[in-house]
Amino acid sequence: MIKPRSPHAELTHPKYRADIDGLRAIAVLSVVSYHAFPGWAQGGFIGVDIFFVISGFLISTIIFENLQRGSFSFVEFYSRRIKRIFPALIVVFIACFAIGWFVLLPGEFKQLGKHTAGGAGFISNFVLWREIGYFDNAADTKPLLHLWSLGIEEQFYIVWPLLLWVAWKQKFNWLTIAAIIAVISFALNIQGMRTAAVATFYLPQTRFWELLIGSLLAYVTLYWRNVLTTIRNKLIGWLGNIVYAQKLVVNENTLRNAVSLTGFLAIAVALALITKDKPFPGTWALLPTIGAAFIIAAGSQAWINRAILSNRILVWFGLISFPLYLWHWPLLSFVRIVEGETPTENIRIAAVLISIVFAWLTYKLIEKPIRFGKYSKARMIMLILPMCIVFGAGVAADKKYFFPSSQSLVALQHFDFRGYPEPEGEYIDEKYKFGALGYNEKNKVLLLGDSHSQQYRNTFAKLINSQVSKNRSLPQVMYSLEYLGPDDLLRVSNEVLTDSTIKTVVFSNFWALTYGSDKINYSIRCCGNALGGSVGGDAKHTPLTTEQMNEIDNKLKSAASSLIESGKEVYFILDNPFGEELAPKGMVSRSIFDGVQIKLTPLPKHKAILRDEPIRTRILNIAKKSGANVIDPYEYLCNREDCPSLSENGKPIYKDYDHLSLYTVTHLVHYLDFLILR
């Protein structure tokens, strides 16, 4: 039975391999390229998966060797992890807090605090998974988004050493355990891509298999040398038969080169074929992970490993890969926030170059002296204290115990970009599985559509809750919890056609987007949530043809006509004004030197309506032909000349490019009151 040694035990480490640092360089440069220039490095995010394999291989090699020798120490192991990770990470946290103090709005600074606490606690992947949603901030405005992968690695470092130690103590086979867990994790990954893609991307149980590929490789390299020799000899003979016309002996170097080349090609294919539109990780993640494993397995003497990956430039990037990974994304994210839009190519190049300089300085002045210096373990444990302080500061910012410098601007106190909270009193209707407010089973109002209908949930909630003590006969309000397109609207309309308790049906979509108007393209770029978190994305929403638009017209007209014929009252809510001029984040200019300043760009009413054409006219015609009524938000949200972005008391009317703010839907939107109070 092997027990962990005393805190004074020294762990042995595998022999340094320059080619693995070169592979690290490929990984980090791929990620940096993807984040800065996603147009030509679309598959660069697979660099994270390469990192996973490298980490699994190196960590497992250390644990296997030291457990077998009886020299494994949990204190020593985690002290080294702390020395490796904490110094650079703490510096980046402090820098992000400092920059955020000057350029972020209160709501954004609160989110930075939450992400800082999540990063310091190594649970960023869980934090980000929980907040992903339609109304969530765009990924490229989250400076600490990239720490999700560090969270997965640290969670692996917590579980894996303990599991291996228990297995050693009970004399279980490490290879069997690693293989079983890897297979289960991979199966969960495959299943998750069908049912919960976002969770599969972020959660450890669907990602551990990638690190375990490295662990399996470490075990095979250490303990299956005889088996590998047999396999190698057979492969050499097989390769000789394929390559040469006559049966010749292929030497070991040729096999090493073939294995390394195969791995290199797998990664190259992954970079070329995998994009953010592919279901990832899924089976696609096998390409970069198996490719990385092949390159490592080939050994340092394979030609690619020796001549390319061991090149001094790549090795240098490999040595600074960790601080470079930490620095590049916050800098790209902050310039995106300050610019208010996708930064120019020159700005992104500058941000990348600065991140390289910062990474080198961090490695040279902070990481290297602490990591390789002769410090006592007790002193190393003291690194935990500043990380705890960072964690506490993050929690305090999240709880709004202190605010950024922009708080001094009174109007900015009201800038809140969070999603809408769950309406007070909401429950799930048993029959249709709709969200519901109120309990009048004989008189119901049904609200159908996409996010432009869901933004009104809190309008009805406040109205019903304020009137319930005065009038017990208020109608019940029901609404779909899913976003409904034209086909869905027609389907649901047919389902409720014979339900006599539903007296009124209201359709409310972002109609310009429903019809694929070309004018919406920059809306998607402005507000889209890219899972990979790329700066400079250029999402396209292909405009529909005239025939396709006519088909939508017919579906909406059919739905409305059928409902009206069944005795129901039908309303179409037209698009509310939308545009970058109305988005709160577009109202501010930011600078590290000048802080945050308000800048208002009026949106003329005629320009707003013109932007909504010809879709606005199509909805008006559909309503007229079907006999439905129309509710026009322009009549209430605009004056004769302009569509204001701020209310009379200085609060934002919109929460983003096209959605009304929580304040607006609960205090200013009265054009739906008659549906409840009549």
Question: What features would you describe in this structure?
Answer:
The chain is mainly alpha-helical. The chain has two domains: 18-404, no CATH class; 427-579 and 604-648 and 666-677, Rossmann fold (3-Layer(aba) Sandwich), CATH 3.40.50. It is 57% helix and 6% strand. It has helices at residues 18-36, 47-69, 74-103, 106-120, 124-131, 147-169, 174-195, 197-202, 208-223, 225-243, 252-273, 286-298, 303-309, 312-319, 321-339, 345-372, 377-381, 384-398, 451-454, 457-467, 486-495, 511-514, 521-527, 546-565, 605-612, 615-626, 634-637, 662-668, 674-677, and strands spanning 427-428, 435-437, 444-449, 476-479, 502-508, 569-573, 588-591, 595-598, 629-631. Strands 1-2-4-3-5-6-9 form a seven-stranded mixed sheet, with helices on both faces. Strand 7 (588-591) and strand 8 (595-598) form a beta hairpin. Helix 1 runs antiparallel to helix 2 (47-69), helix 1 packs parallel to helix 15 (321-339) and helix 24 packs parallel to helix 26 (615-626). The longest helix is centred in the first third of the chain and has 30 residues, at 74-103. The radius of gyration is 29 Å and the shape is elongated. The chain starts with 17 loop residues before the first helix and ends with a helix. The model is unreliable at 1-9 and 520-540 (pLDDT under 50).
